[in-house]
Amino acid sequence: MTMIQSPIQRYLEDLHARIAPLSDGAVADYIPELQLANPGWFGICIATHDGHVYEVGDTRQAFTIQSISKPLTYGLALEQNGKAAVLAKIGVEPSGDAFNAISLQPETGRPMNPLINAGAIATCGLITGDTTADKMDHILGSFSRFAGRTLEIDAKVYQSESATGHRNRAIGWMLHNFNILADEPTPTLEAYFQQCAIEVTCHDLAMVGATLANGGVNPVTGTRALAQEFVSQVLSVMATCGMYDASGDWLYQTGLPAKSGVGGGILAVQPGRLAIAVFSPRLDAQGNSTRGVAVCRAIADDLQLHVMDGTDRNMTPVRRSLTRRSAASKQRRSESASGYLKRAGDRIRLYHLHGALVFSTVEEIIRRLMARAPESEVFVLNLKLVQGVNPAAARLLSDTQKALQTLGKELLFSDASVCWHKLVDAGVDPQSFYADDDFALEHAENRLLSKLQPTHPGDTPFALAECALFRGLDAQDMLLLERFLLSRTYYKNQSIVSAGQASNELFVITQGKAMVSTPTEHGIARLDVFPPGSTFGEVAFVDQSPRSANVTALNTVECKILTRDAFSDLENEAPKVKIRLMENIALSLAGTVRQINRELASLK
Ligand code: GLN
């Protein structure tokens, strides 16, 4: 079997080959152990928010995470202390200085942001635990959840930095002086050195980024690494401060929140979508991987990932917009009721939605509903293909429902499985959800009928002669025919026929209602509801095939049954009656064909 290569994989391989000759910059040497890195190492990964990874080159080579640890620890500090307590100690302003600058606000000593060393050391101080080991338990646990595997510290790199990190120690003591670090700073400083020495691969970094793109949940393991509410804070500081003094230029060029480390890694994230991870140890003057910067800029450009790009703005959330004229419920109605519903069909509107419900898409839906509200009675929103709804959009839908209610109109939802909870939490009436369009439309029709035609006929027993199958037969014919019919009673929820069964019987309902359904993934789909007077089972009766669907009694159902044997016996005893019955069966099948054609036409 020949494997077909994805053009995305092909693109990454070409890009890797194109950037590999770039050998500017130098491997970091101020932490002696880092000098041992092979300057030729070069790996690129793209990981999607749902966890698919494209990779090329040295993506499984271990190296130390260094400063890419900073935003992750910042997220953990936010979770453990809350936003206000963290902001009180660490700012969120880009410093425009180098990563190791001692950028403290003059009066307060508050570090400018959590991604320069001063801010990162202060962040580490906010992590739960008085000892280095306690803090590291939390940090390693968090990073491992991000990566989706258990991460460890590279002891040599840690010791190497601990032995030489006098400048960071000086920063720690300055922070202590300003009471940003309340306690003696050594345990925090050692934890900071250890957090920077956590060993990762380019593939791990890609998973960390995919987790951020996926709202804080690792898409492969399904484990939450960071509370959703802090994901945007972490990505914001990456966007404004992640690349140190090159941050402004970086955001301008790539439009992606990112973080680099002196180990040679860069992680960039397109929020909600994907992550790019690059590993190449040669660094530029700002301490960012030279090839890493080139790769991220190329990918952002080639694949149009700049977050300010905004070209996906025109996605309409409405896939189909229908009225009851082309989408009626399966509930059969009396002639007068169906006549009325036909005329008033435009007063029921059904919208099939898709994509994500967020402010911009929900705004379009609300605008449409408001424009139609004066001449409409009931709106149904089908959410089957909706992938999610955020709290702001859910709230607006709830407000819309209430606004329509005050006008005496209804907003219903069908097929809402994934969104149900979120909508109900936002205040949408739990009674307004229906399993599918059919049930929602039936409710809408009933409402229309009860409002505008208060006395629509109920469930009265039918005289045999009025049943569709017996139309055109006179009293004498009926008397004769009755000898050929069986009577049977079914009770509520009892099965009358089952799909796949052999069938020799034709049914006429004289009292009660029966539902035709087929099983589906989620339960059943209702295909039809037979009121008194209707005939069913014609298809299998005529072509002698097995039953195609289930029929169940909805209440006590009285039936007259014509068996195939009795039907052939009629041939000799009353050929005229048999012909009449045949004509009526043909008429009923013709009606069904017309209905199916109407439904098919609405799908075009
Ligand atoms: N551990 C390194 C330091 O504090 C991290 C710096 C970096 O990756 N930019 O110097």
Commentary on this structure:
The chain is elongated. By secondary structure, the protein is an alpha+beta fold. The relative contact order is 0.08. The model has no long low-confidence stretch (mean pLDDT 91). The protein folds into 3 domains: 7-309, Beta-lactamase, CATH 3.40.710.10; 318-452, Transcription Regulator spoIIAA (2-Layer Sandwich), CATH 3.30.750; 464-602, Jelly Rolls (Sandwich), CATH 2.60.120. 42% of the residues lie in helices and 19% in strands. The protein is built from 21 helices and 22 strands. The strands form 6 sheets. A 5-stranded antiparallel β-sheet has the order 3-2-8-7-6, with helices on both faces. The protein has a 5-stranded mixed β-sheet with strand order 10-11-12-13-14. β18 and β19 (523-530) form a beta hairpin. The longest helix is centred in the last third of the chain and has 29 residues, at 575-603. Glutamine binds at residues 66-67, 99-100, 117, 161, 168, 196, 261-262, 287. Glutamine binds next to loops.
